[in-house]
Fold this sequence. Notes:
Elements: E1 9-11, E2 18-25, E3 28-35, E4 38-43, E5 47-52, E6 57-63, H1 81-87, H2 132-137, H3 149-157, H4 165-174, H5 176-185, H6 195-203
Antiparallel strand pairs: 1-4, 2-3, 3-4, 5-6
Amino acid sequence: MPGGENGYISKQTQGEKTVILHRLAGAFQLVFVAVVGATLLYAMANTEITVNDRMQSGYVYSVSEPVARNFHADFRPELTPGEMLELGIFGGKYMTDCQDEFPADWFSNAKLSPSGANPDLNLFGVTASQPLSEWRKKGWIWEDDPRGWFQWYCRYYIGRRCVDDDRQVKRWKAMTRHIAQIRKNCECYEFDCRPKQRQALLHWAYDPRNI
């Protein structure tokens, strides 16, 4: 799963010359210390992020955990948000107006379509999600995350923890029923079999390339 061991620092030591770079990524700080042939990353927790985009204005949340660390014991996503965006999700429309909130490298190779959802950008080339209006009608949306589960995951990944975490982890676990159905009806790695279910799994941080 994304993350690795608990703690703030991932470290390898090699070489003699050290270069210190300070970078402000959105509203949270990452301090990179680069050693020749190695990298040292400090993820600064206990900061606040203020969101101002098309769907939220003045929303503030706290980052209380290091990036990609200390996940719920039952939550084991197979892909990072950046990997999902690069593979192609939600027709490229999902994250076109809120990039300042998240690490810039998530978007360096992301398949985005600001003008509107384009299913050709999805990994499996199909539409596999219902309209946001339908999500609201079914009561799936928590008001602090008006874009749904993927927005929750992005914020969880960078360190936010909130009262909706347990519900969202349970929803993520419930998606395994699609894995079972693909395995029952498709040959292993038969990617043109049940492409909508495979694309839907990708939207929930499961890697359908392994099924």
